Amino acid sequence: MSLTAQFDTFGGPEKIRLVDVPVQSPAADEVQIRMRAAGQNRAELFYVAGHYLVEPPIPNAPLGAEGAGEIISVGSGVTKFAEGDRVCVLLMFDWDKYGTLAEVINVPAYALERIPEGISFEDAAAFWMAYATAYGMIVQAGEMPTDAAGRTAVITGGSSSVGTAAFQILKQTSAKSVTTTRMQKKVADLKQVGADHVIVTDDEDICARLNEITNGKGVDLVCYSVIGDMIAPAAEALVKKGKMVLMGFQSGKIPGLTFYPILTKRITIRGFHLVWHLLDHADRRRRAVDFLMPLLASGELKPVIDRVFPLSGISDAYTYMTKYSHIGKIVVSIRPSST
């Protein structure tokens, strides 16, 4: 049996329950993994609420989109992985069939990457969604060169796991990072996790500060992991032929952006989805892995983990996420009691 997180009805974290589920043998092209940790994502809250892009198969809907563990066994046709391998589970599978918040799971082998030696299960579980998304926004969609000295990127949602990952990736390119907050008290925390500059939107003029930070040159790239009221001033601050990448927003609309700066500055606006625009494309996934994996192995990229919850506290973990007080990733530690 495997203790597994599921939900039967739509709602908040209180709808998530832990149940014992029989462990089935992996099917063809699947692997069976003893999970050790899972990363949490805000998308899962929308999924439980019934407001995500995928329809949950309630009742008994599985939960969890990424994680890390050890392979127990492999199904027929799997040749790349073997029993005992330490692996990350990437969020590129059918949510209505698979979930990572369980003691033992079966997932498609194509959704795996090996964990580099010396990297903990918690760091591995917190890595791929955040860093592959940040890489996709900055390097793939944003076309930021690997040597970007003198360039500047604005990252919204800087306290999120994607935001903190983006700061680290921008440092690898030598570009400057700018993020925003409404609260002065968050400035020190955001700088500690890698932001070069922090604008306090309640106290400062965004355009004026971006002009000051770039010495009048303007911003080269704006990445919206959270879209809000700063989209218009950030567009005004973009250089000619600057780029905007839109990844995540909760309002369902893009507020306050007029056509004038798009036209006159010839701004490129792109949407980005980690699976549809990166992981589903073998060549793009390989480039991302080739860029990110050595930096994870060397410690040059290291996930910012705010807090680790046990699997028994899964509802508390998602409730904590709803408070918007964390910086970086929330991780669930899984110590299986059964197989």
UniProtKB/TrEMBL annotation:
<dbReference type="InterPro" id="IPR011032">
    <property type="entry name" value="GroES-like_sf"/>
</dbReference>
<feature type="domain" description="Enoyl reductase (ER)">
    <location>
        <begin position="11"/>
        <end position="332"/>
    </location>
</feature>
<keyword id="KW-0560">Oxidoreductase</keyword>
<keyword id="KW-0521">NADP</keyword>
<protein>
    <submittedName>
        <fullName>Zinc-dependent alcohol dehydrogenase family protein</fullName>
    </submittedName>
</protein>
<dbReference type="Pfam" id="PF08240">
    <property type="entry name" value="ADH_N"/>
</dbReference>
<dbReference type="Pfam" id="PF00107">
    <property type="entry name" value="ADH_zinc_N"/>
</dbReference>
<dbReference type="InterPro" id="IPR036291">
    <property type="entry name" value="NAD(P)-bd_dom_sf"/>
</dbReference>
<dbReference type="InterPro" id="IPR020843">
    <property type="entry name" value="ER"/>
</dbReference>
<dbReference type="InterPro" id="IPR013154">
    <property type="entry name" value="ADH-like_N"/>
</dbReference>
<dbReference type="InterPro" id="IPR013149">
    <property type="entry name" value="ADH-like_C"/>
</dbReference>
